[in-house]
Amino acid sequence: MKMEIYRCDHCGNIIVYLTDRKVPIHCCGEKMRLLKADVTDGAKEKHIPVFTHKDGQIVVEIGSVPHPMLEEHWIEWIMIETDQGVSVKWLKPGAKPEAAFALAKGESLKNVYEYCNIHGLWMKKA
According to its UniProt record, which protein family does this protein belong to (predicted)? Predict the structure, then answer.
């Protein structure tokens, strides 16, 4: 199954669409926009998730140089997609742009996502 992430251009709601029943997704009276994840960095802020397998965990850091975590510009969340589901960690301004996720025995990582409040959705394949 293909996972999709949608955003409302009016209020900023973001949803992860896990089951496709071929029904349009709406918010604030309009269709939500399907987000396309960027996979290459071009900005001075680095957005591509960098991850390592460490002690049975996936440790994710945002950018080869740590991403700013300011009130006006920060990473809102980091999410992993595995062959068994998804897991999300929410971040706050002032925190480090990183998160750790435990994997179940036999679970394998597929993709790592992050959402920047200014530059949008970014992804790295496992």
Answer: Belongs to the desulfoferrodoxin family.
